[in-house]
Amino acid sequence: MVTTKLATQGIGENPLIEFVKITNATGTSNPFSVVSAAQRGIYYQAPDGIRIIDRSGSGLPGFDNIADIQRHQKVENVNPFTAIIGAYCRNEIIFSDGVVSFGLQLGSNGFVWRMLGVGFTALYYERNDDEILASYDGITVLYEDPGAVTDVSGGGANLNVTQMSIEYLTPNT
Predict the structure, then answer these.
(1) Would residue 168 count as lying in a domain?
(2) Residue 109 domain flag
(3) φ, ψ at 32 (rounded to 5°)
């Protein structure tokens, strides 16, 4: 369990569950950034950077590559970054602050970050259809959709997107 104060692990069986603090883990500064990545751990924005909790405890994955912007320093054309939301999408954890997004992947040489160039306000991965639904600039799209058009609007990023319409149904009263 990750709260704004600390991270704990539940040990035991219901109703006798004991919560033990995870070594070196801190709480999250942004609860919507907490992401469970199947069999890879729990990732979240902590006060000291993006953290992972796995079987070995807690650490800062790929921190050397993103340390400066996580420490509130501007580097070249990249402003300081603090994740507000996160989602596990296609073997990658995507974090966004609403202005820019970063993807974190586990590569053969450890963790690798990539800058996605657009800030998302919401993300959802549909596993059955292998589709990433993303919202930004007031629109909802299929993000990195194979065969989609390249859109250079919305911050000048080259995105493979297919814009979607969403219908809301309300019950008749």
Answers:
(1) no
(2) yes
(3) -80, 0
Relative to beta strand 110-115, strand 122-126 is unpaired
Tally of structural domains, the chain: 1
Residue 37 lies in a domain: yes
Please state, in angstroms and as integers, the Cα–Cα distance from residue 26 to each residue in 13, 51, 56, 131, 146, following that order: 24, 9, 15, 32, 38
Range of the domain at 128: 8-163
With respect to residue 52, please indicate whether it lies within any of the assigned structural domains.
Answer: yes
Q: In this predicted model, what pLDDT tens digit does every residue of 48-101 receive, in sequence order?
A: 999 998 887 888 998 888 888 888 888 888 889 999 999 999 889 999 999 999
Q: From edge to edge, which strands make up the β-sheet containing 41-46? A: 35-37, 41-46, 49-54, 57-59
**Rounded (10°) CA dihedral 114, 65, 29, 132:** 10
> Number of H helices and number of E strands within the chain?
1, 15
Taking the C-alpha atoms of residue 113 and residue 103, their distance in angstroms, rounded to an integer, is 6
Beta-carbon contacts of 77 under 8 Å, excluding residues fewer than 6 positions away, are: none
Q: Which residues pair with 133 in a beta bridge?
A: 124, 142
Around Cβ 2, how many Cβ atoms within 10 Å? 22
CA-wise closest residue to 62 among 53, 51, 74: 51
